[in-house]
Write a structure and sequence with these properties.
Structural class: alpha/beta
Radius of gyration: 24 Å
Helix content: 40-55%
Strand content: 5-15%
Family: Belongs to the UDP-glucose/GDP-mannose dehydrogenase family.
Number of helices: 16
Mean pLDDT: 95
Strand order of the largest sheet: 3-2-1-4-5-6-7-8
Order of helices and strands: HEHEHHEEHEHEEHEHHHHHEHEHEHEHE
InterPro entries: 6-PGluconate_DH-like_C_sf, NAD(P)-bd_dom_sf, UDP-Glc/GDP-Man, UDP-Glc/GDP-Man_DH_C, UDP-Glc/GDP-Man_DH_C_sf, UDP-Glc/GDP-Man_DH_dimer, UDP-Glc/GDP-Man_DH_N, UDP_ManNAc/GlcNAc_DH
Keywords: NAD, Oxidoreductase, Plasmid
Low-confidence stretches: none
Organism: Rhizobium indicum
Distance between the termini: 71 Å
Number of strands: 13
Protein name: Nucleotide sugar dehydrogenase
């Protein structure tokens, strides 16, 4: 009897004879490629960006979570190679899609990268392959978009090839967890696809969490991000209310978190950044319209968080007026931190970009300093900021600004020296209070 595509692929996975293809070598794809390679699989990374190929060929990582040494080790072992030639997909037994899923300007899902990638896979699809989507999206995408495109070849899911979904859980800058140690939710189109998902990911990560369907797994990822979005919006709103009452929201949170049950601390900031929280919740709000169901909490949270940069600039303008007797339109402002979170170089959806834009819309001049981001790269929404460079953080430089706006509290900053040189500091991260550097010229926002 002929061995089925399922049995053949399962045997390849269990013996590490399967080759994995990972499409999209960004913040998710490259760390995943390293984890899969370290577990013993041969990995081919695919990306349309020739610049990434130049870096990888030079054994230079552009992702903080992957060191140059780790990259070189997998290349030397013959377990990792990268290419822009998608013809190599035909050689891969497991193909994982890690491409962007942005929003349109109207906050509708933009699945163009997923769809184009699925068509590229379809051009090389053969029996005995497992195709996995990791990109965050609305429930139903894997089965209704990816699988449909692949089945357009005439091959059928569950018999000829297999489809699964496993949401990425990367956290740039996290020193405690990495790809291989974060539990991995897995799902598949049918029991055989799920068995393959469990076998493959179980070989690469410490634990897998199987769920009943691809749609359920897609909903898990959205739920994780919506939970954070709503809670951050809550403390951002509390910040504005308590500030009007003369109450320090950070002191409130620090006291509240001493309760050993029924409370989890979240912290306010100048807005939301990263791919997950500012974008992913709107995938569910879009999908919910199909069922004529409102998503009031999600949309309200998005509105509150999106309004934070303008609120912060308002507090900056107020502080300049009261403390320096100067209008924002005549002021020079240094934005401290371009990355969306501390100690990383990731500027995706960073509120710092919006802060700079708003300051300059109001007639002020804004520069930035970030020890991790030397120059602003091209972005979809802030093309006018492309090429601006981080200024040096010297006493003379600092003294030349009317205010310093702390947007990201990187550890590589000498905050004591900053406090001595700056005439006015607007702190959106409470970093000066945390470090015992509170002063009259440090204003919380």
């Amino acid at each position: 009897m002929a061995i089925s595509p399922f049995d053949t692929l399962l045997q390849k996975i269990e013996t590490r004879a399967a080759r994995a293809g990972i499409i999209g070598l960004g913040y998710v794809g490259l760390p995943l490629a390293m984890a899969v390679a370290r577990s013993g699989f041969a990995v081919t990374g695919f990306d349309i960006d020739p610049g990434k190929m130049v870096a990888l060929d030079a054994r230079r990582s552009y992702i903080d979570a992957v060191s140059d040494a780790a990259l070189s080790a997998e290349i030397d072992a013959g377990r990792f190679k990268a290419t822009t030639d998608f013809a190599g997909l035909g050689e891969c037994d497991v193909i994982i899609i890690c491409v962007p899923t942005p929003l349109t300007k109207h906050r509708d899902p933009d699945l163009s990268f997923v769809e184009a990638t699925s068509r590229s896979i379809a051009a090389h699809l053969r029996p005995g392959q497992l195709v996995v989507l990791e990109s965050t999206t609305y429930p139903g995408t894997t089965d209704d978009v990816v699988k449909v495109i692949l089945e357009g070849t005439g091959l059928k899911s569950r018999s000829d090839f297999f489809v699964g979904f496993s949401p990425e859980r990367e956290d740039p800058g996290n020193q405690h967890y990495h790809t291989a140690t974060i539990p991995k939710v897995v799902a598949g189109d049918g029991p055989e696809a799920l068995a393959l998902m469990k076998a493959f990911y179980g070989a690469a990560v410490s634990s897998v969490v199987p769920v009943s369907s691809n749609a359920t797994a897609e909903a898990v990822k959205l739920t994780e991000n919506i939970f954070r979005s709503v809670n951050i919006a809550l403390v951002n709103e509390l910040k504005t209310v308590y500030a009007a009452m003369g109450i320090d929201v950070w002191e409130v949170i620090d006291a509240a978190k001493t309760k050993p049950f029924g409370y989890m601390p979240f912290y306010p900031g100048p807005g939301l950044g990263g791919h997950c929280i500012p974008i992913d919740p709107f995938y569910l709000t879009w999908k919910s319209r199909e069922y004529e169901l409102p998503t009031r909490f999600i949309e309200l949270a998005g509105e509150i968080n999106s309004a934070m940069p303008r609120y912060v600039v308002g507090k900056l303008a107020e502080a300049l007026d009261i403390r320096a007797g100067k209008a924002l339109s005549r002021s020079k402002v240094l934005v401290l931190g371009l990355a969306y979170k501390k100690n990383v170089a990731d500027i995706r959806e960073s509120p710092s970009l919006r802060l700079i834009e708003i300051i300059e819309e109001r007639g002020g001049h804004a520069d930035y300093h970030d020890p991790f981001v030397a120059e602003i790269p091209p972005t979809r929404e802030y093309q006018a900021l492309k090429g601006r460079k981080s200024v040096a953080l010297t006493p003379d430089t600092i003294a030349g600004y009317d205010a310093v706006l702390v947007a990201t509290d990187h550890d590589r900053v000498d905050y004591a020296a900053l406090a001595k040189s700056a005439s006015l500091i607007v702190d959106t991260r409470n970093v000066f209070n945390r470090l015992g550097l509170s002063a009259d010229h440090v204003i919380k926002a």
